[in-house]
Structure formats: C-alpha cells, structure tokens
C-alpha cells in the first residue's frame, strides 16, 4: 500500500477523530471557562483607569460612557482619547465630562510614523492614567453595572496580570450572523482553557481587545502598546508578550456582563476580519493555508459525500454512515459552542456557510496583505513581512 492509498483509506477516520477531539475540548471548556460573576469578592479594590480610544465613534460613545459611569466600583478614573475624529465624538464626550468629574477627554496627538492608530491612542491613554489597574475598552462595548467589579474579582482571584473577557457579541444583520461568530467558535474549540491556565505558554494565549484589564506594572514592563505599535492584532500580541515576560494572563466568560456589537454590516465585517485573519497567524503562510483548507474540508466534505451518495455516485473511501456521523458531530459542536457563547443557536445549522465565508475572507486577507493595501479606520496599514514557516 502506498502512502497515498493509506491516507485515503484512513481519511474518514482521521476527520472523525478530529471532530471528537474538538468536541472533547468544547465540553471541558464548559467547566474551565468561568463566568466573571462567579468569582468571590476581592478584599481590596485597586484604583482602576478605564481607557477608551475613540475615532469617529459618535454612534457608540454616548452609550459606552453611560454604562461605564454606572459601574458600582468605588475608585474609578475614565479617560477617553479623541483620535483625530472628524465627527461629533469629542463634542459628545465633553458633554459627559461636565456631568461627572471622573471622566476626562484627551486630545490625541498626530499619528507618528510606524504606529497604528488605535495602538498610539492606547499608549497615550496609559501614559496619562493613574490607576493601579488599566482597563482598555473599545467604544462599541457596553458594560452591565457590576461588570468592572466582577472583572477585578476575577483578576485578583486568578492572580493574573492580564484578564481579558469574552463579551456577548451582538449580531443582527445576516452578514454578522454568518461570519462573525467564527473566530470565537474557533478559539473555543481548539484552546483547552484549563491547560492554558496552568501552562501559561505563549502559543496558548488568547485575548480580546474589546475588554483587557491589565496590572499597570505588567503593562509597562512588557512595553505597552509601544512594543506592538504596528501589529494588526495588538490584543493577541499583548497577550503573548505578557507570558513572554513572565507574567500571567487569563480569559474569562463575560457574556452576561459585557456586550459588544463590533460591526453593523456585511461590508464592515469583511473589512474587519480581512485586517485580522492573516495577522493572527503572524503572517505564516503554511499554517494559515493549512488551517483554513482543513476546516473547509472537515465541514464540507461529509456534506458533499452525502449528496453524491444520494445521487447514486458512490464515494468508496468515505462511507455514508461515517459521513452522517461527521455531520452529526459537527452540528453538535456548533450548537454547544453557540449556546455557551450566547449566539443565536439556530445559526448553528448554517455552519457550512460560516466556514466557507470565513475561508473566503481569509483568502482576501492574504491578498490585501500581499498587495499592501489593507486599511483600518480609513488609514493604510504597513505591509508586513510574509513568512512561509
């Protein structure tokens, strides 16, 4: 038997084995992925600076500020940096500053060469903050009144220097519904959180920029945003640097306390993920291509086999029973993860189209990176160096 014949003969079993593995990880993560409201109250309440970079956020900033100002946390400083906005963002923030002395507006300085805009805004915010803990919060994020207190409890109980939480991602348009849940689903199914918490390895970190709570000392010790100034996925990069420098991180479940609507249209979803996907793989072409090719194969091949077998075209290497089992396992995994992350569960039945659309965006992300034409918030991003391995 040749190697090719061996691979073909074991292909269906290998695919099923993969599905069993990620189902197992997903089930264990039900217990490891702890909700922030389930941590015991902390004995101390360190001063917290909430840091919000804002560029043309007039549609979001008011609601964001209202939810932050409603926090039941005793020692709170709130800084908003207006990053060269051309809309009413600064005007709206000034109105809230007049109502609450805890809030201040910072006028952002011009963007230096070699920096991405949000990173420069966050660095300025951190340097002007006073809190022992620094919470970087996106302007499109909403907090429930106890969210900050619960997050501080979690950070102190876990004895970590960086806590990121998974928010409830609001998806309304069909573009958001079909595409956006994928990246959290992908992390949840392959990252064994209990092992990641114990091991504290760079390649087992995952952080989300919508809500990142830092120990101030650790943030500046790892170089802050200045150290990742041109990295398109600064949240992932900061998580990796945290572990590299001997500090600890953790990812908790904030879906009951934090909400975010990242995008509002198909166009915005495609633009946002086109910026992030290739960068999340550190521009490693081989691993990037393998992952998206494999996922497309895993979730489309069994369906195609069933269609062919139903049409009378026999597929000998992939028996119908195994194809049915693969589809059943796939659906179970998607339902389980969507329910845990509070996505509409009915969307799980569309998983083949979620995989296909994200794979096409992955191709677009590579193409734009190769051309050097990726943009974000109407600013051109520098072309990175692509690695094959």
CATH superfamily of the largest domain: Spore Coat Polysaccharide Biosynthesis Protein SpsA, Chain A
Mean pLDDT equals 93
Structural class: alpha/beta
> Helical percent range?
40-55%
Task: Give the C-alpha Rg.
Answer: 22 Å
Q: Please tell me the CATH architecture of the largest domain by its name.
A: Alpha-Beta Complex
Number of strands: 12
- The H/E string reads HEHEHEHEEHEEHHHEHHEEHHHHEE
Give the biggest sheet. Answer: 7 strands, mixed
Whole-number count of domains: 2
What is the count of helical runs? 14
Judging from the principal axes of the Cα atoms, what is the shape?
globular
With strands numbered from the N-terminus, the spatial order across the biggest sheet is 3-2-1-4-8-6-9
Uncertain runs: none
Gap between N and C termini:
31 Å
Highest-level CATH class of the largest domain: Alpha Beta
Report the CATH topology name of the largest domain. Answer: Spore Coat Polysaccharide Biosynthesis Protein SpsA, Chain A
* Relative strand content: 5-15%
Describe the structure.
The protein has 389 residues and is an alpha/beta fold. It has a seven-stranded mixed β-sheet with strand order 3-2-1-4-8-6-9, sandwiched between helices. It has a three-stranded mixed β-sheet with strand order 5-10-7. The relative contact order is 0.15. It has 14 helices and twelve strands. It has two domains: 3-30 and 280-380, no CATH class; 33-167 and 208-264, Spore Coat Polysaccharide Biosynthesis Protein SpsA, Chain A. The protein starts with a helix and ends in a 9-residue tail after the last strand. It is globular.
């Amino acid at each position: 038997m040749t190697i090719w014949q061996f691979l073909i003969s074991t292909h269906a079993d290998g695919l099923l084995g993969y599905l069993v593995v990620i189902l197992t990880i997903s089930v264990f993560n039900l217990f490891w992925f702890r909700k922030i409201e389930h941590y015991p109250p902390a004995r101390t309440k360190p001063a917290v600076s909430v840091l919000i970079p804002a560029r043309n956020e007039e549609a979001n900033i008011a609601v964001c500020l209202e939810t932050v100002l409603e926090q039941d946390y005793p020692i709170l400083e709130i800084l908003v940096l207006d990053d060269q906005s051309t809309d009413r963002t600064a005007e709206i923030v000034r109105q809230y500053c007049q109502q609450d002395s805890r809030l201040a507006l910072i006028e952002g300085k011009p963007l230096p060469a070699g920096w991405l805009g949000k990173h420069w805004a966050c660095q300025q915010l951190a340097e002007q903050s006073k809190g022992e803990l620094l919470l970087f919060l996106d302007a499109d994020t909403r907090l429930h009144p106890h969210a900050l207190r619960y997050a501080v409890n979690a950070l102190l109980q876990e004895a970590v220097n960086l806590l990121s939480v998974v928010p409830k991602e609001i998806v309304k348009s069909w573009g958001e519904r079909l595409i956006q849940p994928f990246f959290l689903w992908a992390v949840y199914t392959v990252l064994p959180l209990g092992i990641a918490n114990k091991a504290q390895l760079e390649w087992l970190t995952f952080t989300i920029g919508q809500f990142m709570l830092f120990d101030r000392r650790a943030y500046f010790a790892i170089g802050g945003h200045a150290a990742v100034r041109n990295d398109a996925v600064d949240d992932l990069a900061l998580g990796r640097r945290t572990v590299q420098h001997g500090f600890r991180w953790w990812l908790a479940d904030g879906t009951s306390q934090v909400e975010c609507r990242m995008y509002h249209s198909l166009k915005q979803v495609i633009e946002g993920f086109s910026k992030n996907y290739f960068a999340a793989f550190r521009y490693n072409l081989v691993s990037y291509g393998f992952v998206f090719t494999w996922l497309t194969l895993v979730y489309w091949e069994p369906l195609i086999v069933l269609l062919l077998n139903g049409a009378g075209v026999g597929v000998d290497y992939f028996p119908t029973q195994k194809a049915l089992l693969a589809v059943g396992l796939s659906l179970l995994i998607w339902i389980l993860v969507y329910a845990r992350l509070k996505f509409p569960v009915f969307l799980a039945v569309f998983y083949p189209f979620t995989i296909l659309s994200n794979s096409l965006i992955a191709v677009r992300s590579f193409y734009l990176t190769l051309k050097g034409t990726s943009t974000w918030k109407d600013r051109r991003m520098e072309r990175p160096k692509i690695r094959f391995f």
